[in-house]
Design goal:
By secondary structure, the protein is mainly α. It is built from three helices and no strands. Helix 1 (7-36) runs parallel beside helix 3 and helix 2 packs antiparallel against helix 3 (98-126).
């Protein structure tokens, strides 16, 4: 059976992936903006529009993921309280520590940014730069 990874290790891995993928994407897009100048081509405009819409989308996904995790955690805490007061009606489940809960929430929030940055890195590394 595979060993479960700690929340801090998961978050650390996600942040390393995000950092490694975002640096080349940022430099590639900045170069594209610089070479486009005052009159970007249709291809450049599509890429710039995609870039801005992805940022907004990732922010909404991030907030949604963190809110979803908070609701799940709230439900678990409520069930734990109910199990304390009515052990015959509810099964007690262990709650994560406050530190693990906070790290897991941060991990849920980082995941959309990481996914988009890695996908952009793959997509943009396949393209040949314009001359």
């Amino acid at each position: 059976m595979p060993r479960k990874r700690s929340p801090s290790r998961v978050l650390g891995t996600q942040l390393i992936d995000l950092g490694a993928a975002s640096a080349p994407v940022i430099s590639r897009r900045l170069m594209q903006m610089a070479t486009a100048g005052a009159t970007p081509s249709a291809r450049d405009r599509r890429e710039f529009k995609r870039m801005s819409s992805e940022k907004v989308s990732a922010a909404w996904e991030s907030w949604g993921a963190m809110a979803g995790y908070a609701m799940t955690l709230n439900t678990a805490a409520t069930q734990a309280a109910m199990a304390f007061w009515m052990p015959w009606a509810f099964a007690a489940k262990p709650l994560p520590s406050a530190e693990d809960a906070l790290i897991s929430m941060a991990s849920a929030g980082v995941q959309p940014y990481r996914r988009i940055a890695v996908a952009n890195h793959r997509r943009l590394s396949k393209r040949t730069p314009r001359r």
